[in-house]
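Lab channel / #folding
Pinned by the channel admin:
"Please post every new chain as: sequence first, then the structure tokens as a reply. Keep commentary short and put observations after the output so the thread stays searchable."

First post following the new format, from NK:
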Amino acid sequence: MPLANANMDAPPKIAVIIPCYKVTRHVLGVLAAIDASVTAIYCVDDACPEGSGALVQAQAQDPRITVLFHEVNRGVGGAIKTGYRAAIADGMDILVKVDGDGQMDPALLMDFVAPIADGQADYTKGNRFWNLTHIRRMPPLRRVGNLLLSFMTKASSGYWQVFDPTNGYTAIHARVASHLKLDAISDRYFFETDMLFRLNTVRAVVQDVAMDARYADETSNLRISRILGEFAFKHARNTLKRIGYNYFLRDLSIASLELIAGSVLLGFSAVFGLYHWTQSAAADVATPVGTIMIATVALISGLQFLLAFVGFDIASVPRQVLHRSIKVNRQPAG
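Reply from TO:
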């Protein structure tokens, strides 16, 4: 099902990137199910101990397939970036990442391509939480972990409308990918969420694509309970960096002033209130009502300013598609 693109004279060249690490049971089935509209397929053997790349070379007959090898394991993010660079160098237009473990239905591939080809988005990602019936099949721990990670991702990336951040079924326009500093993006499981942060810094449009949760006999290498603490730290770091970029380096708006006022008032309330409370406790006397009121008014005012800032931030999600304005760049991204 070829797609027309208003920005192109011909249908877009679609590339599929498949990170291959311990996926020998499923990868051949995934490859066989990839849509005929796809121009090229890049399988990246990430130093797989099972020899996934060699298996694909030996048994897959599809001429669209190119197998790339890592001498050392770089993680899923590192494998994706290798695929991105190869696809960009080969002149591909839309890059779709599909896991080789069978969790992502290749039949949905064009659902991720269409919003980009139609000029509605720069980057699309899967969302398994759209159907309440289907998500019941998701393991409970993974479901709760995704809820927590989704909230942290909203704050760190600025894309408050997206959900299911650990979903790796994604697509991106090659012009946008070539515009990013791929080397700065996390190599391992934080790749998808770090990618959203980087996309926000260039004001790319991101869109969720509804899909069903799909769990069979595949084994996921991601353990949310193991990476939740690490992700929390990285999200906090990216949140501070994004706020610094968007509200103090790139622009200075009313929201910037609201954030400053809110932070100062909350800090003053905490220090002033704690100081006078400890002084009163040490003297064994009641804290004066006036002192309590000053701390309370500062606290309430600070919260109001911060809520106003959050409201502004939620409303400022990028809406103008970026890839239309980027000049063609066929050099490998770095």
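NK: The chain has two domains: 14-242, 248-315.
TO: also worth noting, Residues 100 and 327 are 32 Å apart (CA to CA).
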